[in-house]
Write a sequence for this structure.
């Protein structure tokens, strides 16, 4: 291994350590109460070192959301190419995929929802903002294609595929936000909550012809 390659790997490893520390601190304190100093303390680094890897807290926060979007896009690609007997089964695969992403890291998924609806997006550097927009667009395009095929096969009602995609994403994010609100109220996360199954069953029935 050459010197440049070793330095690249070391830098990537350090970046990963910072992101892992940030994930923990954001989960414990929330975005607004977390400081770069808190993250540096968790990572056992100086605050100055963090700024060598991330311009500010917003960029670090957004980087965690990018990871979620990359994982989501990868899973959605598998759903789209996966054989299904009919479009309704593919919707069920979508539900399982979205719930799987939620189970991987609920709090970081919440961070993504918060990012999408906050002023943070406006403060990000253009490359980061472009990455988030592209990943989000690609994911929604795949979901829209699934609905378009269902409409073409006269399985789903004739509504704009992108509108159905938006409604499904809104349904998913709404259930996640409510589940996490219940967790805070009850101070515990419910295992096998029926909310996801119920919400998607109602949605699937509503779009069926």
């Amino acid at each position: 291994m050459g010197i440049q390659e070793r330095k690249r790997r070391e830098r990537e490893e350090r970046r990963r350590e910072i992101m892992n520390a940030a994930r923990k601190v954001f989960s414990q304190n929330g975005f607004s109460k977390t400081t770069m100093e808190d993250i540096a303390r968790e990572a056992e680094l100086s605050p100055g070192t963090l700024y060598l890897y991330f311009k500010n807290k917003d960029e670090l926060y957004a980087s965690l959301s990018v990871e979620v979007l990359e994982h989501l896009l990868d899973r959605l690609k598998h759903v789209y190419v996966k054989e299904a007997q009919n479009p309704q089964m593919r919707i069920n695969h979508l539900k399982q995929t979205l719930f799987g992403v939620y189970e991987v890291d609920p709090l970081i998924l919440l961070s993504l929802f918060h990012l999408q609806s906050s002023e943070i997006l406006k403060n990000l550097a253009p490359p980061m903002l472009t990455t988030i927009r592209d990943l989000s667009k690609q994911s929604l395009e795949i979901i829209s294609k699934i609905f378009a095929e269902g409409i073409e096969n006269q399985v789903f009602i004739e509504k704009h595929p992108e509108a159905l995609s938006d409604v499904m994403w809104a349904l998913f994010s709404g259930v996640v936000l409510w589940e996490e609100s219940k967790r805070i109220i009850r101070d515990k996360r419910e295992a096998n909550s029926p909310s996801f199954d119920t919400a998607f069953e109602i949605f699937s029935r509503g779009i069926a012809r």
In short: The chain has two domains: 1-54, 56-207. The radius of gyration is 19 Å. The chain has a mean pLDDT of 86. Residues 3-29 form the longest helix (27 residues).
